[in-house]
Design goal:
It is built from twelve helices and ten strands. By secondary structure, it is of the alpha/beta class. The termini are far apart.
Length: about 260
């Protein structure tokens, strides 16, 4: 596998077959630019086909897991139809390729996780978050519908009432509360995060690989059943990028002020 071709994903294979994938744009909290967004849509197929990989652990470099789409990508999506369509296809692939990957995926959520970054964090088979970390879907904050992963996943993980509250308000949620409502698998003190992820990864890597893959495939049918709702949410999110509210939301984000929506 030509992992050297990845620009913003660093791969480190451990002897027991645990592949540690690190999103590596630490200067911007690993926000997804166009290239990283493409890499996150593509990497799961390669990892699935790599016979040396048994388990995947994904985390972020520095202080963040991934702070969602960066400003340049958001601006391009609001102005360029071809970029919008490309991002739409990639967002679809991030979700469905992660679900289709037969290898167990563990997310070690070491810092803020928003948007596309949160999609990867929560779609992992086992999600582990540090206590001090804050999570948010965040789409409503800049004027577009919750897409990416939220509609396919949040109601199943934490129930419709909590899903509606956090997706409609775009409020942040800390690690302890995320664990309490079932949004993540585990919450641990920050120093224990990566060791815990590697401990679980080692346990899975020593397990029956075919049975693990089959169990994951069967369980993910619960998520795939919500596929039509996800497809609609993603299309509506992309449509929203063409609206005045999205333009105002992106401008407010750039100017570090509250948006003044008029749509």
């Amino acid at each position: 596998m030509d992992y050297d071709a990845y620009q913003y994903l660093q791969m480190r294979l451990q002897p027991e077959g645990v592949m540690v994938v690190t999103m590596n744009r630490p200067e911007v909290l690993n926000a997804t630019n166009a290239r990283l967004h493409w890499e996150l849509s593509h990497v799961w197929r390669e990892l699935d086909e790599d016979p040396a990989v048994r388990v995947v652990v994904i985390t972020g470099a520095g202080r963040g897991f991934s702070a969602g789409g960066d400003l340049q990508l958001l601006r391009e999506m609001s102005r360029d139809r071809e970029r919008l369509l490309k991002t739409w296809r990639e967002a679809n692939d991030i979700v469905y390729n992660l679900l289709a990957c037969n290898k167990p995926v563990i997310s070690a959520i070491n810092g803020p996780a928003v948007g596309a970054g949160l999609a990867v964090a929560l779609l992992a088979d086992i999600s582990i978050v540090a206590e001090n970390v804050r999570l948010s879907d965040g789409h409503l904050r800049f004027g577009v519908a919750a897409g990416d992963h939220a509609v396919i996943l949040w109601p199943l993980l934490c129930g419709m009432a909590k899903a509606k509250y956090y997706l409609l308000t775009a409020d942040f949620i800390d690690g302890k509360e995320a664990e309490r409502i079932g949004l993540v698998s585990l919450c641990v003190p920050a120093p224990e995060l990566l060791p815990k992820a590697m401990e679980i990864a080692g346990k899975l890597a020593a397990g029956p690989q075919e049975a693990l893959g089959f169990t994951k495939r069967a369980l993910n049918n619960w998520i795939r059943a919500a596929g039509p709702a996800f497809d609609a949410s993603l299309a509506l999110e992309m449509l929203g990028f063409l609206s005045p509210d999205a333009s105002e939301g992106i401008a407010a984000l750039a100017e570090k002020r509250s948006p003044r929506f008029k749509g």
